[in-house]
Fold:
Amino acid sequence: LREKWMKAKDRWAARAGWHLTASRVNKGADGLDLPALLDRIEKELPKAKPETQWTMNNTLMAIGIQHAKHRKRAIAIGEKIGLYKDWPMSKGCIIPYVPIAVTEMVKRQG
Structure:
């Protein structure tokens, strides 16, 4: 169902699919093809509907944070796309711009 929803034209179904995918990535990504997910995110994120962009971006951040092998590519995709780069944020918080969020969260993990 997760994969079907990720492909859905309905923005809320797509959002749900990407949310479930981000959760799987955060829990170890068993059975997921992370390089293929990164390819898909790189291709689809710039033109996705805003509701779906948010959860696709979360998936990209999760890959960068949780999977060191793919961190450099996740950050590069985030830089290339630039989504949320100018997002306003309160002091002490982390903006959802992938290069900043991934770097900061990895630092916080120690």
